[in-house]
Design brief:
Order of helices and strands: EEHEEEEEHHEHEHHHHHHHHHH
CATH superfamily of the largest domain: Ribonuclease H-like superfamily/Ribonuclease H
Distance between the termini: 75 Å
Number of helices: 14
Strand content: 15-25%
Structural class: alpha/beta
CATH topology of the largest domain: Nucleotidyltransferase, domain 5
Strand order of the largest sheet: 7-6-5-8-9
Length: 374
């Protein structure tokens, strides 16, 4: 049984393996394929001229239809983009965010968003960093202490990430920022000093207290390592939790341990240095500047290396530590929002990139309010 000949794509008639022919159509020469709807194909065939004209008519008609379809799709896309943009702007009441336009890119709908921050109405800003799922990948989160909302998020924790925020809000908004609360990050401190001319840096109370507790723990661990007998080592180990508590928060059992500590020894001096610094930070009256300077002198003469280093750290960050006492504002709002961000990430079982996480942060912590429908 012989194999069937291939079918033509136009009329369905059998194909014949002729070579391409060049035929004259008027004053022009057009190149036709080896087959046509009339079954001709030999050079010199009188029907080829008629086939060439018919093919040209079909091609022109197809091009016209395609142009009309493209114009129709363009007008439909523009009308749909305007409608969706209007609806999104009505639904989204996000602080400083508005939808600017829509476009299709690689089969996906891309929404353009512009931020128009009203920093003039929120002079107290908090800056913090939040680690993502994997190590060494962070987000810079900017919060407003007055509205208690997130106003800006970007990937990274360097000074360049924070400079992008200052560039975006403009020089007038930067001059309106009066207080910037941060941890003791050198990168954020550098960016704020260069970007906020009127902004006062206030370090977080928690981070300074953490440094004091870490210095005390380092002294205690060194004493445990240098203990000569097992009894001395156990006695020092049992003092960790009672001595880490503030004196007003201790119970009777903890007071028994504290009373056994000799103040003329290294552990007693470390405990008094820690408590004195925390008392100074909580003090609302008196000469705070003089108290901090006296404490730094005491730490320098204590012969305890962890507290000597802590005294130098406070000396290098003196203005920010002193602002803790004068301004009575902390970065606790930003740290609390960081806990919410961690919960959002766990709820979604992680994110593949920073963009969906940032969108989720704005959705849940940015102050979005949807209109009530009856």
């Amino acid at each position: 049984m012989s194999q069937a000949a291939p079918r033509s794509g136009i009329t369905g008639k059998s194909r014949r393996p002729q070579e391409l022919s060049r035929l004259a159509v008027g004053d022009e020469r057009s190149e036709l394929g080896p087959y046509c709807d009339e079954g001709c194909g030999r050079e010199g065939d009188p029907t080829l001229a008629r086939c060439a004209r018919a093919w040209k008519v079909r091609t022109d008609h197809a091009e016209k239809c395609f142009d009309e379809l493209s114009a129709l799709w363009t007008s439909l896309h523009e009308a749909l983009s305007v409608r969706i943009t209007t609806l999104l702007n009505k639904l989204i009441n996000l602080h400083g965010v508005r939808v600017t336009g829509l476009r299709f890119e690689d089969g996906s709908l891309v929404i353009g968003i512009a931020r128009t921050f009203k920093i003039l109405n929120c002079p107290h800003c908090g800056f913090s960093k939040r680690g993502r799922e994997s190590r060494h990948r962070y987000l810079t989160v900017v919060t407003d202490h007055d509205s208690r909302k997130v106003i800006w998020v970007a990937e990274g924790k360097s000074s360049e990430a924070l400079k992008d925020f200052f560039t975006e809000i403009g020089a007038d908004a930067c001059e309106a920022v009066e207080i910037a609360t941060i941890d003791m990050s050198a990168a954020y401190r550098k960016a704020i000093v260069e970007g906020l001319s009127n902004g006062k840096i206030v370090f977080d109370h928690f981070h300074v207290a953490k440094l004091a507790n870490e210095a005390f723990n380092e002294v205690r661990r060194e004493l445990v390592r240098n203990a000569e007998t097992v009894q001395q080592r156990k006695a020092i180990k049992g003092t960790m939790w009672p001595l880490l508590h503030r004196l007003e928060n201790t119970n009777d059992k903890h007071m028994e341990v504290i009373n056994r500590v000799r103040l003329d020894q290294s552990l007693g001096r470390a405990y008094m240095l820690k408590e004195e610094l925390l008392d100074i930070l909580r003090n609302r009256k008196g000469d705070a500047k003089g108290c901090i300077k006296r404490w730094m002198g005491w730490a320098a003469r204590s012969r305890l290396r962890p507290f000597v280093r802590l005294g130098r750290t406070i000396r290098d960050h003196f203005d920010g530590v002193l602002a803790i006492i004068k301004e009575r504002i902390t970065n606790s709002l930003a740290e609390g929002i960081n806990n919410k961000i961690r919960l959002l990430s766990h709820r979604a079982f992680g994110f593949r990139s920073a963009s969906p996480l940032i969108a989720t942060i704005f959705l849940c912590c940015g102050g979005i309010s949807l209109p009530c429908t009856s």
